[in-house]
Amino acid sequence: MNEQQRKEMNQIKDNPADKKSVEDKPLSEKTSEDFAKYFESTYQPPSLKSAKKRGKEDVNVHYDFEIPEDIQGIGEGKKFLIRTYGCQMNEHDTEVMAGILSEMGYESTTDQHEADIILLNTCAIRENAENKVFGEIGHLKALKREKPDLILGVCGCMSQEESVVNRILQKHQFVDLIFGTHNIHRLPQLVQEAIFGKEMVVEVWSKEGDIVENLPRQRKGNIKAWVNIMYGCDKFCTYCIVPYTRGKERSRLPEDIIQEVRQLAAQGYKEVTLLGQNVNAYGKDFEDRTFGLGDLMNEIHKIDIPRVRFTTSHPRDFDDRLIEVLAQGGNLLDHIHLPVQSGSSEVLKIMARKYTRERYLELVDKIREAMPNATLTTDIIVGFPNETEEQFQETLSLVEEVGFEGAYTFIYSPREGTPAAKMQDNVPMDVKKERLQRLNAVVNHQAAQAMKKYEGEIVEVLVEGESKKNADVLAGHTHRNKLVNFRAPRSTIGEIVKVKITNAKTWSLDGELLETAEVK
Ligand code: SAH
Ligand code: SF4
Ligand code: F3S
């Protein structure tokens, strides 16, 4: 599309008649122009300001995804490579894109020199995540020069930011394709446009789209699987870019989720992780029913699959019903990742987390009472604008009080477009770095202590494959999500086995296999 067409596209006014006819068309027959009409001026370039809007319009669920005939087979004899950055949501989106590309005839490769299409599925959560991607784009320039027919695409959360799209348009014109998180199902058409068009193809929707249910997936592995239960986030924590890059909260229908988990169980998967940015808000957007995460977990509890996890929880919406359901145990595992971000109620307030230190601690008490064996882990940000030494110490004391057995810890990174990015900040970077080190020392100490307790114990481990460091050793996780390395026949991969722990390290356990028979 040229500049003139692009302008015209942005000028198309909303017309209910057009909207209707677009909605009536099957998904695969819709064109870029149809979507441009439907999304008004949100068709390229993206805008974080539009992304912030939360409309009341219904979210439609589509079951009619298919690859148009003229695009099927377009990838015959060709290969694709997707590099994934960021969270599990992105990992899973990559599986969907891999599924779509496979249906177009492409085969997967891990060698970039063999690839005919390379996609970077990006993360925008912190500046260093973005720097990595720009570094990679820079590296790929040489490859693109060698292989001019290579299609180089950028997708994921960074594509939703106008500053990123503008930077690519200006400085990295060798990129062929940019698309965002809301239009992954348009990949066939976008790849076709990128192959046959002369200009860079940019299609990013600022506003979230509908839910598309029947997208193909090429899952990584056949033991553990990701299952989306909801998309987007409405929490708008003041530091966070996710509500802008992922749109408003949209829950998948329980019947679709349950069917997917049942299918995975039937295919022999041993573990599912239910995914959402704020899974505790699951179901809040349903208008025709009251059905929350507790209800969903209760249904999934009944499915014959050995292990069910979920991530990520927001303390604010973690309700009693969920605790009651999780306390039943069974396939619902004893591990809760409950990001706290800070131990200071003042900082939490400025972060707009909508709970206090005390409320968080009360919730932890409730969980502990109902699930005495549960492992708790968390996420923490240090060096939020103007964080004082005292406030930081409140974080340290909370970490100790809760006894987290692990934490992802981060230095605050300003994200353009978020309220916190506009705050004056009087905390120098070296102080932030020093706080991170102090925090990590406490977290590592607690993690090591928690691991020590396992020495001599017998645990059940889902054998996931070779250990990362030594191909002769197998590795897997316990119920409480502890990594265990041990020697065992490869035939145990995919089984749940009993292992006696012989040695504890900070982040993993070494053990000896006790029996090869599967433990139920
Ligand atoms: N939805 C999840 C978090 C997703 S992002 C939740 O609310 O728990 C994962 C983690 O990245 C967050 O928990 C937070 O600790 C961190 N994070 C998010 N924005 C950040 C920023 N601007 N700077 C540093 N860390 C950030
Ligand atoms: Fe970001 Fe907060 Fe939403 Fe988590 S809950 S994704 S931290 S806005
Ligand atoms: Fe990153 Fe987007 Fe996930 S910003 S953390 S990839 S939702």
From TrEMBL:
One Gene Ontology MF term: tRNA-2-methylthio-N(6)-dimethylallyladenosine(37) synthase activity
Region listing for Disordered, in residue ranges: 1-30
Residues reported in the UniProt entry to bind [4Fe-4S] cluster 1: C87, C123, C157
Domain of life of the source: Bacteria
Name the UniProt record assigns to this protein: tRNA-2-methylthio-N(6)-dimethylallyladenosine synthase
InterPro entries per record: Elp3/MiaA/NifB-like_rSAM (IPR006638), Methylthiotransferase (IPR005839), Methylthiotransferase_CS (IPR020612), Methylthiotransferase_N (IPR013848), Methylthiotransferase_N_sf (IPR038135), MiaB_methiolase (IPR006463), rSAM (IPR007197), rSAM_horseshoe (IPR023404)
Role according to the record: Catalyzes the methylthiolation of N6-(dimethylallyl)adenosine (i(6)A), leading to the formation of 2-methylthio-N6-(dimethylallyl)adenosine (ms(2)i(6)A) at position 37 in tRNAs that read codons beginning with uridine.
Protein localization: Cytoplasm
Pfam family, one: TRAM
Lineage, opening ranks: Bacteria, Bacillati, Bacillota, Bacilli, Bacillales
Organism of this sequence: Pontibacillus yanchengensis Y32
Record's catalysed reaction(s): N(6)-dimethylallyladenosine(37) in tRNA + (sulfur carrier)-SH + AH2 + 2 S-adenosyl-L-methionine = 2-methylsulfanyl-N(6)-dimethylallyladenosine(37) in tRNA + (sulfur carrier)-H + 5'-deoxyadenosine + L-methionine + A + S-adenosyl-L-homocysteine + 2 H(+)
